[in-house]
Specification:
- The complex is a heterodimer of chains A (459) and B (543).
- Chain A has 18 helices and 14 strands.
- Chain A is of the alpha/beta class and 459 residues long.
- Chain A has three domains: 138 residues, Rossmann fold (3-Layer(aba) Sandwich); 122 residues, Nitrogenase molybdenum iron protein domain (Rossmann fold, 3-Layer(aba) Sandwich), CATH 3.40.50.1980; 152 residues, Rossmann fold (3-Layer(aba) Sandwich).
- Chain A has a five-stranded parallel β-sheet, with helices on both faces.
- In chain A, helix 1 packs across helix 2, helix 1 crosses helix 7 and helix 14 runs parallel beside helix 15.
- The longest helix of chain A has 23 residues.
- Chain A is globular, with a radius of gyration of 23 Å.
- The two termini of chain A are 33 Å apart.
- By secondary structure, chain B is α/β, with parallel strands linked by helices.
- Helices cover 45% and strands 12% of the residues of chain B.
- Chain B is built from 22 helices and 14 strands.
- The chains are: A alpha/beta (459), B alpha/beta (543).
- At the A-B interface, strand 1, helix 1, helix 2, strand 3 and helix 3 of A face helix 3, helix 4, strand 3, helix 5 and helix 6 of B.
- Strand 1 of chain A pairs antiparallel with strand 3 of chain B, so a sheet runs across the interface.
- The complex binds iron/sulfur cluster.
- Iron/sulfur cluster sits at the interface of chains A and B.
């Protein structure tokens, strides 16, 4: 057994987190910053954080992840990191020549009390930021929230520090992407273009973290929301925040700063959430939904209807991040499955409340988020009430193997498979892919375990 | 030795590498970029701060302490005291394999433990929560040992992990609890964490169990972390030779073995950088000499085994070692003979770790490949130039903060395994007793040595030298491959291995052959792109 010490008996814990279902804010900020064209993320803290975040993102994407660090030593930790950040800004602009540096803080710089706003202002006043270049920042202490809120904070930084209103609204819709894969962002652009809605999507990691092999390393790949687009976001006619936890804060900030009204929708995972997304986007853009998209929807419903017997009544355990878990849970219910155990390390009342609402359709479900809502607890729940399917990031494979549960990889990080950066999980076609994956593992299981006389050719 | 391959003029290269840096940065980096001469081993600036803003390979002290040294021991519950990230990122990502004795035996390597520090703990202190966490770990698992690792905020908010550990240890009575002040900002890289880990393991574990176990030739294997099963292969060979491994620091190890390590008669050191402190301290306290070995490479393995046999000075052992070598080498030779024609003459660059950039050169030599540039991520001058430079190394402010344990001979247990005269005799025979000659003496003249290479410098080096393979870590992997050059990860082995011993050498030969000769590198351009550039060339020729 890989997790041989996990007991069936659940004891409340208050101090110890075991096998977390979250990670820390800065990595989210780094990921978001990679979705700005020509941007170099910068980790204001010791080297370790930056190295760990780059490594984890690299393992997840199998792509270069460039980011710099303030390389704190003990001195900086005692006297403050201003000198390090100023030196870093100078070095970065001369060596790596980005359009923008996106600085995020870490637990260390936050504990010392470094003020990123003040330091970046000083950098500007001291002439360390070349003409036409930018330094933006986000406060992302690791002892608050999770990787998801860190992402949200950096996207807020983009909205607050770039968007400007010249007072004339244009006909574009801002689509603020919650934490999703480059493939998902690409899918949003494709859906918008098929709907005929002009959008400013930010951040946008497509063509950054799924860059082609050309024999040349592009330090700043082709993709990413451009600074001009980010500035123009202040004059868009409205915003659509895709994800109430990881995207909405930026929409709020934009509304506050530039009076851009917004609507928040769930991430379009599954049928119902995609319906709401498409309706919201078509409404925002003032367009009718073309038949092509209705047909795409129809294909998803068709498969759901045709294969319903394989889903019905199957129990599922899942873990991950709020903006994915909410629509995913709803989708599982729409498929006739039973979400049985759900954890997420990301804290927050709004998330909890929404999940409880969704789970009214699954009265027996265990759900917990925030402190000690970890994979150890999830595993214990599974030991008490076994499930037919596990959905979550790569770390789930230890539970899946020990408990012999079919497993679908979904979320962050996925360290042992590819696909997530290339094939979307959102929209109707992305949801169809998800259905295919779920069916695949469930039907493979049936094929492996069926008695010989009950082994089916046609399924 | 002169390189067999054509090298660009190395003196010009340094300028190329640093000319884009601001003046102060260039001045500093210049000292870390050196044209090698194995005869004179010029000074390399190492173990100094990385310039802020430079994209470095380096990590933090916590990574060196928890991730590298303590992580591989399977029956310690390692609790990371701090916000969640530090523990999350070090969770199973280093590939330290382990093989519990039975399915019931302890193994916590698959688990990630953290106090998940929140803002209130940063403001009001986290010691209370830490103690609750230790208690919960004890109640849940009843482990033999619990280790606490401090991450960045811990030192600043004044949590005393050592006091908390002592208190809990006294309370439990049957569980060894100890802490490490390995906050990420200490030192300049993982290296500080190695030292801190060595101190803690030495203080709290080594010497706890004096039982002398059976075995004629007993040694500890230091600085081998069983990545990809490396230690398993070395264990297999030791077994075959009749050499008893008391403890490994720390691949595939247990608390019990480490507590008993001082009963061995020799420490052999693989990764000098991360564990030499332990060798020195055990020599002083218990009288166990240490010897540098290298089990990376079939030839190096052979040499190391002979050195071990020589150390013990036993004819039977020597004969057995020769038998084992004779048994193992034909399989190695068969493969290398087949592969070498395809790798001969190719070039490699290695920028990684604190010893791997040295050790792996042996394997490339066996493949007929030349290492044209190399450097470490977190080593010190002695790893480059050899331990004889130790007295000359200036201790700067960043290193001064790392505790040097005051170790003296143990009044009861000190027992010099060899006399001074015997040691001198062994050294005269070429055994690196309490010594290490470093990387540079083995590298060819005019090759390049770069410490803490930056992203910018590595890209430049690849442009200028066009190596056939580049060895580094995960952060560099896809950058270099995007340039059309295969990158071999020498931390994680690209999820392959083992690469030690005889079987490992064969694995490595095959992997490198596959990588440098992979058809994919010729498929990067689309046919129409190729057609375009060809027709362009053709039209040039025509005009
Ligand atoms: S640098 Fe500090 S906060 Fe970052 S990973 Fe290392 S110990 Fe943790």
């Amino acid at each position: 057994m890989l997790l041989r010490h996990t007991t069936k008996e659940v004891k409340e814990r208050e101090g110890l987190t075991i096998n977390p279902a979250k990670t820390c804010q800065p990595i989210g900020a780094m990921y978001a910053a990679l979705g700005v064209h020509g941007c170099l993320p910068h980790s204001h803290g010791s080297q370790g954080c930056c190295s760990y975040h780059r490594s984890t993102l690299t393992r997840h994407y199998k792509e270069p992840v460039m980011a710099a660090t303030s390389s704190f030593t003990e001195g900086a930790s005692v006297f403050g990191g201003q000198a390090n950040l100023l030196a870093a800004i100078e070095t970065i602009f001369s060596v790596y020549d980005p359009e923008v540096i996106a600085v995020h803080s870490t637990c260390l710089s936050e504990t010392i009390g470094d003020d990123l706003q003040q330091i970046t202002k000083k950098a500007k006043d001291d002439g360390k930021i070349p003409e036409g270049k930018y330094v933006i920042y986000a406060s992302t202490p690791s002892f608050v929230g999770s990787h998801i809120t860190g992402y949200a904070n950096m996207v807020v930084g983009m909205a607050e520090q770039f968007a400007k209103s010249i007072g004339e609204k244009n006909d574009k819709v801002n689509v603020i992407a919650g934490w999703m894969e480059p493939s998902d962002m690409r899918e949003i652009k494709s859906l918008a273009s098929r709907l005929g809605v002009k959008i400013v999507l930010f951040p946008d990691t497509s063509d950054v973290l799924d860059a082609p092999q050309t024999g040349k390393h592009e330090f700043y790949p082709k993709g990413g929301t451009t600074i001009a687009e980010l500035i123009s976001a202040g004059d868009s006619k409205c915003s659509l925040a895709v994800g109430c936890i990881s995207a909405e804060p930026a929409a709020v900030a934009l509304d506050k700063k530039c009076k851009v009204p917004f609507e928040t929708v769930d991430m379009p995972i599954g049928l119902s959430a995609t319906d709401r997304f498409i309706m919201a986007l078509s409404k925002a853009g003032g367009v009718k939904v073309p038949d092509e998209i209705t047909a795409e929807r129809g294909r998803l419903v068709d498969v759901m209807a045709d294969m319903e017997q394989y889903f019905y009544g199957k129990k599922v355990a899942l873990f991950g991040d709020p903006d994915q878990l909410m629509p995913l849970t709803e989708f599982l219910l729409d498929l006739g499955m039973i979400p049985a155990h759900i954890v997420s390390g990301t804290p927050g009342n709004r998330f909890e409340k929404r999940m409880r609402e969704i789970l009214e359709r699954a009265p027996g479900a265990n759900f917990r988020n925030g402190a000690q809502a970890d994979m150890f607890l999830l595993h214990q729940w599974i030991k008490n009430e076994p499930v037919d399917l596990l959905i979550g990031n790569t770390y789930g494979k230890y539970i899946a193997r020990d408990e012999d549960i079919p497993f679908v990889r979904f979320g962050f990080p996925i360290l042992d498979r590819i696909g997530h950066s290339y094939f979307p999980n959102i929209g109707y076609s992305g949801s169809l892919r998800l259905v295919e994956k779920i069916l695949g593992v469930l039907m493979d299981r049936q094929d492996q375990t069926a008695l010989e006389e009950r082994f089916e050719l046609v399924m | 030795m002169q390189a067999k391959v054509n090298l660009p003029d190395p003196s010009l290269i340094t300028e190329e590498l640093i000319n884009k840096y601001p003046a102060k940065v260039a001045k500093k980096r210049r000292k870390s970029i050196v044209v090698n001469d194995p005869e004179t081993t010029p000074e390399v600036q190492a173990n100094v701060r990385t310039v802020p803003g430079i994209i470095t390979q380096r990590g933090c002290s916590y990574a060196g302490c928890k991730g590298v040294v303590l992580g591989p021991t399977r029956d310690i519950v390692n609790i990371v005291h701090g916000p969640i990230g530090c523990s999350f990122y070090a969770w199973l990502t280093r590939r330290n394999q382990t093989r519990p004795e039975t399915p019931e035996h302890e193994n916590y390597i698959t688990y990630c433990f953290s106090t998940d520090m929140q803002e209130e703990h940063v403001v009001f202190g986290g010691e209370k929560k830490l103690k609750v966490a230790i208690q919960e770990a004890y109640d849940l698992f009843h482990p033999k040992a619990i280790a606490i690792f401090s991450t960045c905020p811990v030192g600043l908010i004044g949590d005393d992990v050592h006091a908390a550990s002592r208190e809990m240890k006294a309370k439990f009575g049957d569980c060894n609890v100890f802490g490490f002040s390995c906050e990420g900002y200490r030192g300049v890289s993982q290296s500080a964490g190695h030292h801190i880990a060595n101190n803690g393991v030495f203080k709290h574990m080594v010497g706890n169990n004096n039982e002398v176990k059976a075995g004629k030739f007993k040694l500890n294997l230091l600085g081998e972390y069983n990545i990809g099963g490396d230690a398993f292969e070395i264990e297999r060979i030791f077994d075959k030779c009749g050499i008893t491994l008391v403890a490994s620091f720390s691949g595939n190890s247990t608390v019990g073995a480490i507590e008993n390590a001082h009963t061995a008669d020799l420490n052999v050191i693989m990764c000098h950088r991360s564990i030499n402190y332990m060798g020195d301290m055990m020599e002083t306290k218990y009288g166990i000499p240490w010897m540098k070995v290298n089990f990376v490479g079939a030839e190096s393995t052979t040499k190391s085994l002979r050195k071990i046999a020589e150390y013990f000075g036993d004819e039977e052992l020597k004969a057995r070692v020769e038998e084992v070598i004779a048994e193992e080498m034909p399989a190695v030779k068969a493969i290398i003979d087949e592969i070498r024609p395809r790798t001969e003459g190719k070039t490699a660059m290695l920028f990684v770790g604190g010893s791997r950039a040295h050790h792996y050169q042996d394997l490339f030599t066996e493949l007929g490949m030349t290492t044209i540039a190399a450097g470490y991520e977190f080593a010190h001058r002695d790893d480059y130039e050899g331990r004889e430079v130790l007295p000359k190394i200036k201790i700067d402010a960043d290193s001064k903060n790392i505790e040097e344990l005051k170790v003296t001979a143990d009044p009861d247990l000190y027992n010099p395994r060899k006399t001074e005269a015997e040691l001198e005799e062994l050294k005269a025979k070429g055994l690196e007793i309490n010594g290490y000659e470093g990387m540079m003496k083995q590298m060819m003249k005019k090759t390049l040595v770069v410490d803490d290479v930056s992203h910018y410098e590595s890209e430049k080096l690849i442009e200028l030298y066009k190596p056939d393979i580049f060895c580094a870590g995960i952060k560099e992997k896809y950058v270099v491959q995007k340039m059309g050059v295969p990158l071999k990860q020498l931390h994680s082995y690209d999820y392959g291995g083992p690469y030690t011993g005889f079987k490992g050498a064969v694995n490595f030969y095959k992997d490198i052959d596959r990588m440098v000769n992979n058809p994919v590198w010729k498929m990067i351009k689309a046919p129409w792109e190729k057609a375009e550039s060809e027709s362009l060339e053709a039209s040039y020729v025509a005009s």
